[in-house]
Amino acid sequence: MNETIREQSSEEVWKTLEQLVSGKGSIYSNSNMDREIKIINISIYKQGKQQNIAVADIVAKVFDKGYLISEKRYRVSLIYHFKPLIQFDYSSMPKNPTGFIVDKYSLSEIASIKALDKTYKKVERPHSKIEYKKQNPTNPQNNPANMPNNKEEQ
Length: 154
Known about the structure:
One of its GO terms (cellular component) is membrane. This is Putative VirB8 protein. This protein is mainly beta. The protein has helices at 2-7, 11-22, and strands at 33-47, 51-64, 67-82, 100-113. A four-stranded antiparallel β-sheet has the order 1-2-3-4, with helices on one face. The protein has one domain (2-131): Roll (Nuclear Transport Factor 2, Chain: A). Helix content is 12%, strand content 38%. The model has no long low-confidence stretch (mean pLDDT 74). The protein is built from two helices and four strands.
């Protein structure tokens, strides 16, 4: 994955991302944390003949051990170009088949959505790394027969 990102980034963008990922407390280095990114809108602009600009609005959710701890809206702006075919290196094709390169980017927080109460923010996700503990059958709260809507005969 890192090699793919490096192949699609200018040196300046790659160094910034490397520092972000390796920084102390980075969510990228914490195996208990997962991110869910949803793209809301993408706009592509062209400024003159030489500069391509793309803007994307996203929602980023951060989960720690399956619990939603943060939900924010961001605007991502990119200046990008495509490598000319003459400079296209076919050994990098599997990682960057289109020759797409991000020259510069910025990330702006648009809104911070209040975190849910811990009781309600457990989110089941199919690709989650959550490990569930087995319920204790001796605990009356975990016994299905003690549930108010249980139609099971006793």
